[in-house]
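During the second half of the funding period, the structural biology subgroup turned its attention to how the target accommodates small molecules. The most pressing case was magnesium ion, which had performed well in the primary screen but for which no bound structure existed. We therefore specified the complex as follows and requested a full 3D prediction, including the ligand pose.
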Amino acid sequence: MLETGAIWGLTGTTVTSFMFFWAMYKQYVPQHFRVYVEKYFHKMIGWISYYVDIKFTEYTEEGLKRSQAYDSIRNYLASKSTALARKLKANETKNSKSLVFSMDDHEEIEDEFEGVKVKWYSNVKVSQPQHSYGRSISDERRYFTLTFHRRHRGMIIETYLDHVLREGKDIGLKKRERKLYTNNSSREWYPWSAGKWSNVPFHHPATFETLAMDPVKKEGIKKDLIKFSKGKDYYNKVGKPWKRGYLLFGPPGTGKSTMIAAIANFLDYDVYDLELTTVKDNSELKKLLLDTTGKSIIVIEDIDCSLELTGQRKKKKDDDEEDDEEKKKKKEEEKKPNVEEKQSKVTLSGLLNSIDGLWSACSGEKIIVFTTNFVDKLDPALIRRGRMDNHIEMSYCKFEAFKVLAKNYLEIETHDLYEEIERKLEETDMSPADVAETLMPKSDEEDADICIKRLVKTLEEEKDKAKKLAEEEEKEKAEKEVKKKKKAEEAEKKKKEEEEEKEKKAEKEAEEKKKTEEEEKNEKVKGKEQNGDVSKTNGCNCLK
Ligand SMILES: Nc1ncnc2c1ncn2[C@@H]1O[C@H](COP(=O)(O)OP(=O)(O)OP(=O)(O)O)[C@@H](O)[C@H]1O
Ligand SMILES: [Mg+2]
């Protein structure tokens, strides 16, 4: 299709005639013939026009990645188009009363920079419809065209475009509503469909102030994050891609997911929640990561459960300790087809390459977070420093963390029962999630005093429960030990019996062998004696 920008600069009469012929041409000339005509028309325009066109496509040439230049230009033009463009596109964004205006397709606006006028056109190219499963699908490719007089070429390329990209980027950052993204299955990746990622506005209220954990550790993490976010030049200097890996591990309900939200709010980043089980293979994983923007956190939750990424280090089975029933159960479970594993062919090395290989350096300022309840299950290669630079243990609720929760949930900083609570928290393993739930008032009648007393009671119950559990475990362990000992004794006895049996058999065989040898010897002697008698007789005969 011809670009509107290409015909700018022709006189009024020429334009009118051209429009007439253009309409006729579109109606009567066949598509395959038009391709040639347009090719030569472009060439001709190039010879006679004093204007230069620059095209900025929505996706990079390889079609893999969204062009950041395009997004910056769109932001820049949106700020101009509200006042200047004739046709606007109005988008309603969630949780926002005001509409967001941008330049409509096939629309043009004029911009002026240092006394030089330029024109921007927004274009869309619709491909020939493809037929798939009875549906007709066509691909829409958007692009902007910048048109200016060729005598300003140097200034436009060196100064104006720089100005547009910088301003556009700043506008984008200021206006952007932070998003929480989740990856789509590759069947939904086409540009006319949902794309690689779906998103919703990110409004998680967690902050480092509301996060209950050791204050020293918390300060350390905050400092680390600030250093990272300001470290563009430093990372460049040391030759490292501008990214940082965090491994958050700990029991359930200790605040791993809450910490991710707090980091996103602290740094003003987007969150990409990557569901590995819906990623078909390593190549898809790379494409997904390439389609993420800077200033973002890429999260893989429960990495130990995401596919077979734990490497070769399968849990060593201690046969002696396993009951037959347990063995059976395990075998049955192993036989069950794991649907998720079958769907995804992402491998450990594919994941390692995506987060740490050459591909990882494609867009900067990214934090990669893995969470797990079982850090020991992970392959060391996955969590080595450099990949997962900062390992943070989220632990059960201790007194310092409790104080933060009490302040958040009950707005108190001290209470007579604090000392008792401190002691009890040391003796019990209660997650911050459980402590928070106990502290939360359940009705308007419940005040801080009631909630604190409820926590003391719950802690006592938890302690009793833990004690009982420990006793039961001890008992179970002792029973297992007895079973193991009995098994070992039986095995020893069996071994001894077998050895005795073997010995007896060997003795018997030796005796039989000896007997046979003796018999053979006797036979031989007997044979010799008989031979001697015969030769004697023969000798006598000769002498005769
Ligand atoms: N350290 C914490 N500080 C403040 N609130 C917390 C903390 N830990 C847990 N919570 C509360 O408990 C809820 C559950 O916590 P969260 O989802 O962050 O735990 P998790 O460690 O991610 O658990 P899982 O391992 O099961 O995913 C949160 O909504 C939050 O309200
Ligand atoms: Mg979680």
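Two results from this model are relevant to the next phase. Residues 412-482 form one domain. The first strand starts at residue 51 and ends at 57.
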